[in-house]
## 1
Amino acid sequence: MKSETIISESFYTSDKNLNTKEQILKKSIFSSNTKSLKKSTEKTSSPLGSIVLAGTFLLMLGGAFVVYTLQSDFDQFQLDRINSSWGFPFLILAAALFFFQTGSFLYNLYLYFKYKPIESVSDDLLPTCTVIVPAYNEGKLVWETLLSLADSDFPEQKLQILAIDDGSKDDTWYWMQQAKIKLGNRLSIYQQPENKGKRHALHRGFELGTGEIFVTVDSDSIVKKDTLRNLVSPFVVDQKCGAVAGNVHVLNNKKALLPKMLNVSFVMSFEFMRSAESMLGSVLCTPGAAAAYRRDAVFECLPEWINQTFMGQPSDIGEDRAMTNMILKQGLHVLFQRNAYVLTNVPEEYKGLYKMFIRWGRSNVRENIMMAQYVFKDFRNESKFGARLLFINQSLKIIMAYPFLLFMLFFIAVHPVLFFSSTLLSILIVSTFSVLFYAKRYSFADAFWAYSYSIFYTFSLFWITPYAIATANKKGWLTRGLS
């Protein structure tokens, strides 16, 4: 498989149209040169990063050694658990889940190898497109986003770009105005009278848009030159296509350790999982960073989407997952385009990261409940097996969150050494696939962050799903405040 590598390089330029002498960030350039990425990785490596990676391997190898040394104690623990009143049923359940997950993984692997992104169609065949960029407290980032969109290899007469300031408290509106000066009639900007949330900003864009296809792009994201045309081409090839997910990578992956880890995680989540989901026509979530929707499909569910509630409360999060769910419910296909790259910013600190995951977790709980209402009905003329399998897989992770949390706490209380050592060994085994996958697709050196991310998530974010389930009715974006 040919490696497809992305790097972003920001450069500064002065512009006579701006009312400031400050040099500003103009655009990001994408490259497919693997050697350049390796050099970039070497330049951005830090002593702290090296220490973390070294510590990761020491922990995993230490865990493997302890499991080997204490094998007899581990066997005795298993026997004691089997002989207990609750242990044997739990073991049967765990074994059944293991075989189900293994079978699902092998099926996804088969689908991944079958997957191929749809090639871009010609300019004549490209549909008209409205790009909607909602922004809240993004500052200069929205300028960079809008310029990258305007620089797209997409027929100018077929492209409408709308930027909507959702009542920002910083200088976001100023940078939108500067982008308007720069781009002229190619860009239309609007300002919400007050902050009403991303869903309402998008809703205004949907109502103002004239394109056959709506594309939503987050205001802290940068698109590749051919992203838009690759993102909308499936609608021409597949008339049953209702939505398309872009391929999200991390923009700030050279700035801090968490973005480095998340970039490897994102590649696994998008390029592996969504490739498999796309083969089933049932990608479960089109990301806010870059997604496309057929106009007719959007207006079919727009009233339900903007007025969506959960447990009597208006839904102000998970607008992307909700829109995807409602389009799947219409019997339409939701696909993934690996060649539609977008770079987006992610939190660089633990607090911002767990808040983002809580928001995603709550949305996942809510939308799985919504999906349960139609997925086992005759919602699609074609095979419904794939959508149902994906739903079951997602639901099992939610249903089993508390039983496995309780077992984990029991294991720690009874045999802490066995728990930590066996968990570290499991991470070494399971995460090796992610390492090999990323190394094959992009960079061998960066691939090892998959191990660090697994350890970090397992021991510091394990509580996210149980907490999201318990607080699924709560509102709030959590990460939208000024830094």
Note: The first helix runs from residue 34 to 44.
## 2
Amino acid sequence: MAETVHSPLVTYTSVISLLTLCPPFVILLWYTMVHADGSVLQTFEYLKTHGFQGFKDIWPAPSPIAWKLIACFGAFEAILQLALPGKRVEGPISPTGNIPVYKANGLQAYAVTLVTYLSLWWFGIFNPAIVYDHLGEIYSALVVGSLVFCLLLYLKGHLAPSSSDSGSSGNFIIDFYWGMELYPRIGKHFDIKVFTNCRFGMMSWAVLAVTYCIKQYEMNGKVSDSMLVNTILMLVYITKFFWWEAGYWCTMDIAHDRAGFYICWGCLVWVPSIYTSPGMYLVNHPVNLGIQLSLLILASGLLCIYINYDCDKQRQKFRRTNGKCLIWGKAPSKIVASYRTEKGETKTSLLLTSGWWGVSRHFHYVPEILAAFFWTVPALFNHFLPYFYVLFLTILLFDRAKRDDDRCSSNRLIKFKQLRLISSALISQRNNTYQSTKKG
């Protein structure tokens, strides 16, 4: 079995739990938001009364229209991914020495998708409210279809891997969950993880956010200020993502996590269902915030999204210039860390310790969690479920930070004790400099 970050017991328990619990949770969340007034207690009482048969009754069967909507959307995004022009971008070198090449056209695809979707509605060609009306069937189809998709990825990893960045742990469950291939592709140019993570997952988030607005408008003749704040913040965040998409290809999701249930099923099902859930709740529960509170929440959310973007921008600038740049108007402080590759080669890497990255490690996760809170808080606090995404995101990012730290430690990039000593030395040096300046 391949080495894992957590103990084998924790790994197997978490893997089996997520494989078995996530699919039904998606359906239960949809049912609760749409049919149970957003009340977890109401859903619990229903299941308590009706038992497993009640659960079977609320699970909608994937309908032909659901499959058609998914197929049309997926095909449209795949065509945009292949056809739209974009800058050639190289990803980070892989553990086996491969350098993945991408075409950065996500922002163009995002703009074309939203303009097309809104135009279809505006000119009466297609009513997005249909998507909301068949949402349960769509999620049910995604749950089933994405499990089959992940199984095909598992078989592809065994039979026709796209590169040498592929391998098996010898355990079917682990291979299915974590994936076989790091960079699976169809042909030379169609990158599967870019499609699942960016073009289907993130794009469906934006499309569903707009869908919820349109559905509320058609139901009530207007869109509430709470829905507007939620939708604006989500769309700004997603716009930021596609603006920065090439940077995302250097993150753990793409450069380290293989294509399996964890990443691909998560992006195909979990993102469009869980990430959009605050807006799903607001469709039937419009809240009148008032101008002042709406603007306050909107400004706070926009500030968090900007800080999150600026964190990544500082890191990219630092890496691009090899540390020869200005961060907040000053030459950046850094850590020169040595590490050993799988081939036994010793290399060095620069770690930024200035700007936002001088505040704390993984500081960029803080404004990301806060941004999620601000686009959820328009729902106020009558029910807990709209805040599930905020809770989930917090757990996810804490776990991701731990996995990133452990990965760096296992690769001898930098050990935690060394980091603490270096950080303490930097703080001490700054304090001494400050005291000397103060005395002078």
Note: The chain has 17 helices and six strands.
## 3
Amino acid sequence: MTDRLHIVGGGMAGSEAAWQAAQQGIDVVIHEMRPTVGTFAHQTGNLAEMVCSNSFRSDDDEQNAVGLLHWEMRAAGGLIMSAADAHRLPAGGALAVDRDPFAETVTARLHAHPRVSVTAEEVTELPRDGHWIFATGPLTSPALGAAIQAETGAEALAFFDAIAPIVYAETIDMSRAWMQSRYDKGETEEERTAYLNCPMDRDQYEAFIDALLAADKTEFHEGETATYFDGCLPIEVMAERGRETLRHGPMKPVGLTNPHQPDVKPHAVVQLRRDNALGTLYNIVGFQTKMKYGAQTAVFKTIPGLEEASFARLGGIHRNTFLNSPTLLDAQMRLKSRPNIRFAGQITGVEGYVESAAMGLLAGRLAAAEIQGRTLPEVPQDSAMGALIHHITGGAEAKTFQPMNVNFGLFRPVDGLKGGRRGRKDRYKAYTDRAKEAWSAWLTEAENK
């Protein structure tokens, strides 16, 4: 019993942590409160359910930090990446997945693993004995959140993360919309036509902004603060920052040509990305929102091509909780006050599916090694994994700590390379080459420990 690893939370991080530890020969119990205890954002009891976007973002492992993280997770035999690759959808250079089969595959593989068991129960306390990983994510239950707060002696940090709406493809007017990835990116025709585009002229854009600003919004509960992660701002919050903000963000018209009016440059473009393998569902890219449901329907139907749209899911907003990890966690992701407990995933202050799963991968391997009496080498800071774990466990400024996606700004500079935009391509390639070498060496050394 003392050698068993308990993982609380069956999302991206918890699922990956369980897989990695089990593959290292450790018996694992996943404590997932769903479906016994639900959340407003989840719709199933599946492990690794995707509740927001269906995209793992760029899959470019030479010029993009998240694509590099994909590469490192694949090299480590990651379950999340394996399932994502198995249910990949065309997305113009990004890794988008068919969300339901993806989660079903992760769930089935973990249930089938001889060293993994799954129990549907809510854990509300921080245990003093045994080996534990808490990967409860942004929707940590209030009871467990209170227990974490009582243990750490710090105010829980929180931000609000909004969910983008999903449209039934058959209700989109294709006489106004068209299929094209920005700059025709992608190696196949399917990739080059992975996004559905709805154009706006200046008057339509201005009317849309007016409607957005005037729409009824979700009210916050007393004592809650609307502190958003900048990578996932609700569209109405972006609009409040300036009328041109959306046109230079998710609605930018660059790299696209409307075949219905090839000589007319759109003033703004709303993009939708395929959300399932059948191509029957599309999510509106970057359109996270806290508008009330009735307002969403009215506002989104002002978009050319969506006038008669039907929605499979409207947007929503939920509270995301994360630790001030630089002050609370050690370099092994252990809670300093209770080193029998590790944290992983979004609750540690990483942002995004891939980053969450990556921290689960590391937590699972670190916990397995500790149980087996092995000491793993330090995760190399020059890898994407190392850059992230270094950031959350000490590299970030604790006073201003906020959720962070993986990015090349977290990497140590490569000597002798030119800075600025002109040197970016060579610099990014140098980062990824160095990271792959460092990560491969770490995996080999870790396997031999």
Note: Residues 162-319 form a domain with the Elongation Factor Tu (Ef-tu); domain 3 fold (CATH 2.40.30.260).
## 4
Amino acid sequence: MHRPRSAARGVTLTAVLGLATAVAGVPALAGEHGEETAAQVRWGECPDDVPAAPTPLDCATVPVPLDHDDPDGEHIDITISRLASENPDRRRGVLLLNPGGPGGTGLTQPQLLVSQGIPANVLDSYDLIGMDTRGVGHSAPVSCGFTDDDQYHGAIPPYAVDDAAVAEQARIAESVAEKCAANDDEGRLRHLTTANKARDLDRIRAALGEDKASFLGYSYGTALGAAYASMFPERSDRIVLDSNIGDTHLDHDGMRRYGSGMEETFPDFAAWAAARHDSYGLGRTPEEVRATYLTLAERLDETPVGEVDGHLFRLSTFATLYHEQSYGQAAQTWQSLLSRTEAGPEDDRPAPTGTPAPHDNSWSVFLAVTCNDVEWPEDLRTYRRAVAEDRVEYPLFGAATANVMPCAYWREPAGPPVEINDDGPTNVLVVQNQRDPVTPLRGGELLNEEFGERSRLLSVDGSGHGVYVLGGNPCALNVTTRFLVDGTMPERDLTCEAPAAG
């Protein structure tokens, strides 16, 4: 009884929902215009939840205005980390990092990249700068007050089997928006925007004493990096945008691309499972594996097994496609669920206690940034129509990602979204797997088109979410490393083929 539940939940939480003693002596820096004042960061110990080994980091805080339009008003502290270059002769600057989200903590990202084998010449060339962006973790964290008894379970809405399910999700989405507003005691949620995060990046650059900053961002980090390169083109150095959402913000169209991303990426899992049919029994061909998925999802809609219903099954399968390493666990979960034909006992579901949800902070930041960046449709008919269309166009997952978000009931956006600026140096490398469930290839193509001559698209014949260092394509690793270390930008858009098996 417990195995299918824990396996599906484990895949979901780790892949989808994901995300100080140091002081800074930075009085006040100029905003987007005007002369900057001299500033210095004091490095010290990191917060207790940043491991001290095997890769020790320094940490500090940088004060930034809560409202960049009021630079003399309230300030908040942004906590940053540093893995310093140990080769002064080769050091060329700082590489600002963002892991995605919005809402993901980034203080330990330098350690993650080291553990995944980021090349030593990149470590020589840059101080790697991780950070919790505003609202996240150790940087003036915000909370909508989510608890374990809320009917909200992450960024992606539940799969809507019919119009009634859309209406039910609209009720939940509206209550979530109201909950966030009611818990915003300090009035900080409205100031969580991609534009403000980009302004914070420039404050950090200046506080570090750098004329320019390079940037490596994944997933939502591509929106932040694109905004920074657009708002501060002459202060941006070498910008790598990996696994792209398609703009400087996520809107309803961007969420709907998740449905197409799953359709494009699922065949890789289906082929993997079909080759292992004798072990898992999910289908002898990719087509049979797809049919198993659809049959199992519909069965779980009607009769959940424990806490695994059709929504959680679809969501966990979507999360599986982030990394091939998850395929085996997913196949095991499917096999366990297929062997069960009856519902689990009601008391198998843990009773809610009203305790804070472990992902409260990351969910809160995701909603604030996503809903503040751009206006979302408010008419429920728009969502009903989109769900109906995508249930047919993208039957694996489209009726989830087209569904109603709390953004439909959010306050008006704090300002217009950042527009891509194609007037600037050719310094943006757009890196993109051709099959990515959450940020499909089209997102990279859109961003590359908007940047025009400022960017090149490096598309990779690969599957999953995350390419540079996190993926296994040697061509993509080499091209991106050459760009970061030597500044070598491909002369034209480039495709990296899948490595030969062996």
Note: Residues 190 and 414 are 6 Å apart (CA to CA).
